[in-house]
């Protein structure tokens, strides 16, 4: 019963330090407190290199926190769980597998019989509009199509928690808007909780229920903004609404400062 | 509005044949070029062989030492028709090929298995790494006489020579391939639910195959060298023995003839490997300008 009332993701005083090649400790995330409710779409924005990706790897179980706790559905994270889906920034499709086989990979890894896995994969390929491409290899697809394959391959596992690390940053502007709409549509049926990392403030407001602003590295939560724009949203039109622009100003006042700090630091590093 | 809708299709109609025309002339140019390349290749071969023959006949080079194409051809014909001193020519070719192939397969399997294992298991790599480096630094061809002592005149000693030559390049490539697997792919597969075994067999090995295949081309040549050198030192059958026997009777045409046969065998094997590679790597984008 307690697993039903507990939030989807909870980070309690989580810190992560890496050992750099020179042997020094580099703190990427410090004392991070963050709670993400069930079915919530949370966008995380922060300056480049502040520790956003690291935060996601902590939630996914790919990395362990050096201090603090990370809970998923009320349980502490121990290794990679089966509740989590992760869409990476870089292409992470298997180049030697066809589109269909790529989407089947997750269920097959988890022991689903072949025919059932194929059926489920076809379903998701239809949903991302790639049914006609199931026999192609990734190199025969456009960047946007490869991203769709990655989305289908992630959604086919029915993740309760969806982690996305700047998934659309490598796409051109039009494709990005299109993919954002598609993501909202795919997500709306699943009830999954989403953590969407981006450095694009517009994208984060258009997509999310909540926008979390991170400080310049080491990352910790600076401020959380509720986005009260009505759903369903269309990315291209929502960003023209007065309320959107209002929210944008408000958040930028907070985020801009951190971006400036990061920029000044890197300028100091170069000098 | 209306002029545009009228103009658009007519433009498409006039443009299309022009496009296919250009495509056709480009295809023709490509064909011509490939004819030219192949013709020049044949011409070059004929010129070299002709010059060799002419110089030998004119006495400019000594045919006793350098032989000449017509004698070499005559030697191959004699071997093919009347057989060699050790039996038929086909038997010699088969022996060498058998030793090389067996040595190659063993060396490749051992190299791939160990390479992937060391690439995946850090502890093994740390323990065995230095020993493998030392063994690789040895000039392994000097092991051939030792193998002859250990395994006798039969095929086993040649197979062993082939194995030690093949193993190392394959091993190092498989190791490198396993090490250089895209970390994102591994992370992604683990998130999707892959266990360690699945990561090894379905992510690491597929990504290492292009590394491994690179070494397969070179290593088949090494397998042939191992078999031939083994036969040359001591054997009862095989092309290497044919070389040794011809050399013993100062029959330079025989040495060249055996070499020519070997070259043909090696080329055929290479062709087969390239064919397999093409089938296996359908998932790879075609390399621009690759024409092997
Ligand atoms: N595996 C690692 N080893 C050492 N340092 C790392 C590692 N991963 C990330 N970092 C460092 O941690 C900081 C935060 O990185 P990251 O989380 O990728 O930032 P973001 O995703 O916000 O751009 C960076 O300064 C980066 O150099
Ligand atoms: Mg990042």
TrEMBL record, chain A:
Q: Which organism is it from?
A: Actinacidiphila glaucinigra
Q: Where is the signal peptide?
A: none
Which domain of life does this protein belong to?
Bacteria
Q: Where is the ABC transporter domain?
A: 9-241
Is the keyword Transport assigned to this protein? yes
Q: What is the lineage of its organism?
A: Bacteria, Bacillati, Actinomycetota, Actinomycetes, Kitasatosporales
Query: What protein name is recorded for this chain?
Result: NitT/TauT family transport system ATP-binding protein
Query: Is Transport found in the keyword set?
Result: yes
State the CDD domains in the record: ABC_NrtD_SsuB_transporters
MF terms per GO, please?
A: ATP binding; ATP hydrolysis activity
Automatic annotation (TrEMBL), chain B:
| InterPro entries the UniProt entry points to | MetI-like, MetI-like_sf
Positions of transmembrane segments:
36-55, 101-119, 131-153, 159-175, 211-233, 253-276
Give GO cellular component annotations, separated by semicolons.
Answer: plasma membrane
Tell me the membrane topology, using the record's own terms: Multi-pass membrane protein
Q: Which UniProt keywords apply?
A: Cell membrane, Membrane, Transmembrane, Transmembrane helix, Transport
Keyword Secreted set for record? no
Q: Where is this region: Disordered?
A: 1-21
Q: Does the keyword Ribonucleoprotein apply?
A: no
Outline the extent of the ABC transmembrane type-1 domain: 93-274
Query: Organism's domain of life?
Result: Bacteria
Q: Indicate where this protein is primarily found.
A: membrane
Q: Which CDD domains match?
A: TM_PBP2 (cd06261)
Record's PROSITE patterns?
Answer: ABC_TM1
Subcellular location(s): the record lists: Cell membrane
Family per record: Belongs to the binding-protein-dependent transport system permease family.
The protein's matches in Pfam families, at most eight in alphabetical order, are given as: BPD_transp_1
- PANTHER family recorded for this chain? ABC TRANSPORTER PERMEASE PROTEIN HI_0355-RELATED (PTHR30151:SF20), ALKANE SULFONATE ABC TRANSPORTER-RELATED, MEMBRANE SUBUNIT (PTHR30151)
This chain belongs to the protein called: NitT/TauT family transport system permease protein
Q: Which GO terms describe its biological process?
A: transmembrane transport
């Amino acid at each position: 019963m307690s697993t039903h009332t507990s939030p989807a993701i909870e980070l309690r005083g989580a810190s992560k330090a890496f050992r750099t090649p020179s042997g020094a400790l580099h703190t990427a995330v410090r004392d991070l407190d963050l709670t993400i409710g069930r079915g919530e779409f949370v966008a995380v924005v922060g300056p480049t290199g502040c520790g956003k990706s690291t935060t996601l790897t902590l939630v996914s179980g790919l990395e362990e926190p050096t201090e603090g706790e990370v809970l998923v559905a009320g349980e502490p994270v121990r290794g990679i769980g089966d509740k989590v889906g992760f869409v990476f920034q870089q292409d992470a499709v298997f180049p030697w597998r066809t589109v269909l086989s790529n989407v089947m990979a997750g269920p097959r890894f988890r022991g689903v019989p072949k025919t059932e896995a194929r059926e489920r994969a076809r379903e998701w390929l239809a949903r991302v509009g790639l049914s006609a491409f199931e026999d192609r290899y990734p190199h025969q697809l456009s960047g946007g199509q490869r991203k769709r394959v990655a989305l289908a391959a992630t959604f086919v596992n029915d993740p309760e928690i969806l982690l996305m690390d700047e998934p659309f940053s490598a796409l051109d502007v039009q494709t990005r808007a299109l993919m954002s709409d598609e993501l909202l549509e795919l997500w709306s049926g699943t009830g999954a909780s989403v953590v969407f990392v981006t450095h694009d403030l517009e994208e984060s407001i258009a997509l999310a229920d909540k926008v979390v602003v991170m400080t310049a590295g080491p990352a910790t939560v600076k401020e959380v903004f509720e986005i009260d724009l009505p759903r369903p949203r269309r990315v291209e039109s929502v960003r023209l609404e007065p309320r959107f622009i209002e929210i944008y100003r408000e958040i930028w006042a907070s985020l801009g400062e951190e971006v400036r700090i990061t920029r000044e630091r890197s300028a100091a590093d170069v000098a | 509005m209306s002029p545009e809708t009228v103009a658009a299709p007519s433009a498409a109609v006039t443009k299309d044949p022009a496009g296919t025309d250009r495509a056709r002339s480009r295809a023709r140019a490509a064909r011509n070029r490939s004819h030219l390349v192949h013709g020049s290749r044949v011409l070059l071969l004929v010129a070299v062989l002709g010059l060799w023959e002419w110089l030998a006949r004119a006495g400019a080079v000594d045919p006793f030492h350098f032989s000449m194409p017509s004698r070499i051809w005559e030697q191959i014909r004699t071997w093919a028709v009347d057989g060699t001193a050790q039996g038929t020519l086909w038997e010699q070719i088969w022996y060498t090929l058998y030793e090389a192939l067996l040595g190659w397969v063993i060396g490749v399997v051992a190299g791939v298995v160990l390479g992937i294992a060391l690439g995946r298991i850090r502890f093994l790599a740390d323990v065995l790494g230095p020993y493998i480096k030392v063994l690789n630094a040895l000039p392994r061809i000097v092991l051939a006489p030792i193998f002859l002592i250990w395994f006798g005149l039969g095929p086993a000693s040649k197979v062993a020579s082939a194995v030690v030559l093949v193993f190392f390049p394959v091993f190092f490539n498989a190791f490198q391939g396993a090490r250089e697997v895209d970390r994102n792919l591994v992370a992604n597969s683990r998130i999707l639910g892959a266990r360690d075994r699945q990561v090894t067999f379905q992510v690491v090995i597929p990504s290492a195959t292009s590394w491994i295949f690179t070494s397969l081309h070179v290593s088949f040549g090494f397998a042939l060298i191992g078999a031939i050198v083994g036969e040359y030192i001591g054997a009862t059958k095989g092309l290497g023995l044919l070389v040794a026997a011809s050399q013993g009777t100062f029959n330079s045409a025989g040495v060249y003839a055996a070499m020519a046969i070997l070259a043909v065998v090696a080329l055929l094997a290479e062709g087969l490997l390239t064919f397999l590679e093409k089938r296996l790597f359908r998932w790879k984008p075609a390399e621009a300008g690759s024409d092997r």
